[in-house]
């Protein structure tokens, strides 16, 4: 047989919930395809707290070159725009030399911002966010550029008048917004006044135009999204084991040393601070007590109790984060319509804690092999986008004078203390206005 021609370089983006094995898969794909790994986890950019941020260790890299890991000094600000510029140049260099690139990170926010410019017209955000019209509207001008002072012509319009006009020119957009969300109502009207198009049509076109476009298409390489998914119960077990392993490997010493050197709490006005990592805030009561021990001795039993509670809180919050990430990733694929290929790692990870030897075989056969197949497959596999324009139920609470959108928001309002109190007051006013029958008279 004739020798197989080498495959062209690719840009492979691996996303998924924390603890699902993204870093492990990135290394194995890089070794199999011959490429580099680019970190897209915002907290792992920092050179501080490598254990707390679950940064990939040198021995775990297995000789594969990793970029943007521990590259930001304490106090430096490294936002998504800086990441896109640095990572983009690395991708172009690797592809130019015939090497593939594997981008791996916790949130899909940084990874998506690298691949597409669809997020680069919005205000910088460190928080993982679902993609929605709100993401486009914050700072985007009607023609796709940054806002200018001349575009703020609707500032003097009151909320009710602005919303009524939006409902007239674009009922679909009005139905999505709350009448009191005056900033976005005004921006929608600015888009309509400047372009002559309904904002809802503009957003639909933006999603259609950008959902399959990668900035690296011009390099002649394919961009592939691989998303790891896992059963929540399996992932909970993995995350508990990981937190306990972090504690055994020196997490507490790392946190104490950092707190003594830089302070327990973030400085005022700090942006992108590494203390945002889950596994730091949960330890703050312990760290504050530990740092103050020199001047105010703390009972060992109290400190031990704080330590145990910090461990449990870290496990609890990490599990909660993984569920949010998994849910947002599904929304990302369905709503934004990008060609994401899902790989289920549940069966393999279920063997991680109990059958380590079986785990390695299962991981390679069911995860690595499947991911390599997806990288070689030429056809675009899309996830059903569903009905993205479904109507949102609108409810009005007479007792509170509030308008709620969606069943979840409405049920939460009905169960809230403020609504129950307002309803009780309304019933009292009604009894005072119409009177109440005497119990005995009521039985006649």
TrEMBL record:
InterPro entries: AAA+_ATPase, Dimethylallyltransferase, Guanylate_kin-like_dom, IPT, P-loop_NTPase, Znf_C2H2_sf, Znf_C2H2_type. Keywords: ATP-binding, Nucleotide-binding, Transferase. GO terms for cellular component: mitochondrion. Residues 416-430 have a biased composition (Basic residues). GO terms for molecular function: ATP binding; tRNA dimethylallyltransferase activity. GO terms for biological process: tRNA modification. Coiled coil: none annotated. Signal peptide: none annotated. The keyword Cell wall biogenesis/degradation does not apply. Residues 9-256 form the Guanylate kinase-like domain. It holds the Pfam family zf-met. The keyword Disulfide bond does not apply. Residues 416-444 are annotated as: Disordered. HAMAP family: IPP_trans. Belongs to the IPP transferase family. PANTHER family: TRNA DIMETHYLALLYLTRANSFERASE. This is Guanylate kinase-like domain-containing protein.
